[in-house]
Design a protein that fits this description.
This protein is an alpha/beta fold and 255 residues long. The chain has 9 helices and 8 strands. It is globular, with a radius of gyration of 17 Å.
Length: 255
């Protein structure tokens, strides 16, 4: 389902529904379509907000996890969101973590799925090859347990990004920033209840990463999903939504 992309100042975003704010941050090759099933499910109970992160639009100096966190902070302030349930997938999870460590006051809970911040395989040993569509198809398929999830449409999106030299430079800058920005020593400062939802077959941030987050974040719970890779909200949306709804319902009843 296509949702209207709204614009407020320099910010582009989706906002659907009413209630407490559930904000979703996508990953490096992610986009709004990653969250379709999630938006559709939760917009009846929450105000679901998905900012379009300027992954490839920041100047090179600010093309980093920190630069993206500053953008999210400005967006939250500009839109005057409070009591936010902040969810991030992959690099989006990393941005969410940095945000909750730097600006915890408006965040009510944290949801991470396949998040970087401790360890990730990233691009493996190779960076995107320009003009090699089969390579891109194989790399995209590694995101999922079921390679058929790497549809032509998804591969075309990633291929278009990796065929642009400046975009590739920025992707590499973001990937390197994520690897450098290890949060292991800081996670014990997170006070927000945290829900970790991980694919048991995630090869990019394997299940041990979820287990390590669980150890390091004080008030956290970990849910592992079988036959599922790096993007559970896309690959097993029903199971993902069920786990997330249980967590958010507990948040509401305890507040």
């Amino acid at each position: 389902m296509g949702y209207e992309i709204k614009q407020d100042g320099k910010f582009k975003y989706i906002e659907e529904g009413q209630g407490e704010t559930l904000m979703l941050l996508h990953g490096l090759f992610g986009g709004l379509s990653n969250f379709n099933a999630l938006i559709e499910y939760f917009r009846h109970k929450f105000k679901v907000v998905v900012p379009m992160l300027p992954l490839l639009d920041l100047d090179l100096l600010h093309t980093s996890v920190g630069g993206l966190q500053k953008y999210v902070n400005k967006f939250i302030d500009h839109r005057n969101y409070n009591e936010v349930h902040l969810m991030g997938n992959s690099l989006g999870g990393h941005v969410a973590l940095v945000h909750v460590l730097k600006k915890p006051e408006k965040i009510k809970s944290l949801i991470l799925t396949g998040s970087s911040g401790l360890f990730e395989n990233g691009m493996g040993d190779t960076y995107p090859k320009r003009g090699d569509k089969e390579y891109i198809r194989n790399k995209t398929a590694l995101t999922f347990y079921d390679p058929a999830m790497a549809t032509d449409e998804l591969v075309d999106e990633v291929f278009e990004i990796t065929n642009n030299r400046m975009k590739v430079i920025k992707i590499i800058a973001l990937a390197k920033s994520a690897i450098r920005n290890n949060l292991g020593n800081e996670l014990n400062a997170i006070k927000q209840p945290t829900c970790l939802i991980w694919g048991n077959n995630d090869t990019i941030t394997p299940p041990f990463v979820g287990e390590e987050f669980k150890k390091l974040i004080p008030n956290s719970e970990l849910h592992l999903i079988d036959k599922c890779g790096h993007a559970p909200m896309m690959e097993v949306p029903d199971e993902f939504n069920r786990i997330l709804e249980g967590f958010l319902t507990r948040m509401k009843s305890s507040s």
